[in-house]
Every structure is written in C-alpha cells, then in structure tokens.
Design brief:
Layout (H helix, E strand, L loop, with lengths): L10 H4 L4 H37 L4 H25 L1
Amino acid sequence: MASREIVALPAEAMTPAGGQALSFLAVVRSGIGLATDLYDLSIINCIRPELEDCHGKMSNSMNGTITSATTAGAIVGQLLFGYLA
C-alpha cells in the first residue's frame, strides 16, 4: 500500500481573490457597529436630564427601566445583525 503525504496549503491558496479586501471591510464594518453601540449606550446618561426637564422627575425604577431597555435593545440588535451577517 502506498503512503500518502498530507500537504498543508498556504492561507493565500485558500482565500479567493480579493479575500483580504473583504476581510478588511468586515473589520471596518464591525468597528463602526461597535462605535455606534457604544455611543447609544453612553448617550442615554446625557439625555436623561433632558427627559426629566420634559416629563418631570424620574423615579429610580424609571431610570432602571430606561437603562435596561437600552441595554436589551443593544443585545437584541447584536444578535439579530450577527445572525443576518
């Protein structure tokens, strides 16, 4: 019986032409998504005083609900767009 030799292919041989450009674009898109999520999660603390000016003093449960809804929306969005990608 003849012995078979396993040959490892270089990474360039396994990626289609332009694969590196597509990988770069994926990293850029992921970075933009992360930046917008961070902005959404941090801006709620700046908006809260404006909400209190318009709607009156908020209770602790209202503040917790707003923060929780923001975080839950970010998680759902990440899972949804991760699934779609």
